Amino acid sequence: MAWDVFSFIGTAAFAISGALVAQDEEYDIFGVYILGMVTAFGGGAVRNILLGIPASVLWNQHFLFIVASILITFVFFFSKSIISHWNRWGTYFDAIGLAAFAIQGAMLAVDMNMSLFTVMVAAVLTGAGGGVIRDILAGRRPLIFKEDIYAIWAAGAGFFVGNGFHAYDWMLYGLLVIVASLRILSYHYRWALPRNDKWSR
C-alpha cells in the first residue's frame, strides 16, 4: 500500500513541478507535457537502469501516466495564478516529490536486498533525478547543485529506510513529512553544506 501511495504522491508532485517550470519558461503545450512527464518519470527511469530493472517496466505504469497527464493539463490551463508565486509553490511541490520518490526508491532497493550504500544512491537518483533532468532541459542550474541543501535529504531518507525504518507504513509517512519539511526549511532559511571558496573572487 505504501509503495502505491508514494508512487502517486511523487508522480503527482513532480508532474506539477515540471509543468510549472515549463509554464514559467513560456513553453508551448507540447513542451509543458514533455517537461512534466520527464520530471515525473525521469528519476525512476535512471534508478531502474542503475538497479538493472528492465526499462520496459516504466511503460507499465498506465494509471500514473493518466494522473500525470491530467495534472499537467490542469497546470497548463490554470497556472496563471500559480506562476506568480512560483518560488513558493514550486519549492513545495518539488520538496514533496523529492521526499516521496526518495523513500520509494529506497524501498525498491531494500526489496532487492541491496547494500545500504546502494539504497541511499537509489533514493537520491529517484528523488532528485527527475528534477535534475527537468532543470537541464529548462536551461536552469539543477537544484541539486545549488547552495541550499537538496539531495542530502534524499540520501537521509535512504539511510533510514535502509536501516529498517520501514517496518510500518506510519514510519514511512512520518519520514515523508520530515524529509519534505527539512527540504522546505533548508530553502527558506538558506541552510547550506560547506563549500570550497578557495577560487572565489
Task: Describe this protein's structure.
This protein has 201 residues and is an all-alpha fold. Helix content is 73%, strand content 0%. It has 8 helices and no strands. It has helices at 2-24, 29-51, 62-78, 80-83, 86-111, 116-137, 151-162, 169-188. Helix 2 (29-51) runs parallel beside helix 5, helix 2 (29-51) packs antiparallel against helix 6 (116-137) and helix 5 packs antiparallel against helix 6 (116-137). The radius of gyration is 16 Å and the shape is globular. It starts with a helix and ends in a 13-residue tail after the last helix.
Provide a brief overview of the structure.
By secondary structure, the chain is mainly α. The protein contains 8 helices and no strands.
Give the end-to-end Cα distance, rounded to a whole number of Å. 52 Å
Sketch the major β-sheet: none
Strand content of the residues, in percent? Answer: under 5%
The H-and-E topology, N to C, reads as HHHHHHHH
How many DSSP helices? 8
Radius of gyration: 16 Å
Which range best describes the helical content: under 10%, 10-25%, 25-40%, 40-55%, 55-70% or over 70%?
A: over 70%
The overall pLDDT average reads 88
What gross morphology would you assign? Answer: globular
What's the β-strand tally? 0
Structural class of the secondary elements? mainly alpha
- Poorly predicted regions are none
Question: What structural keywords apply?
Answer:
201 residues, mainly alpha, 8 helices, 73% helix
List the helices and strands and how they pair.
Blueprint: H1 2-24, H2 29-51, H3 62-78, H4 80-83, H5 86-111, H6 116-137, H7 151-162, H8 169-188
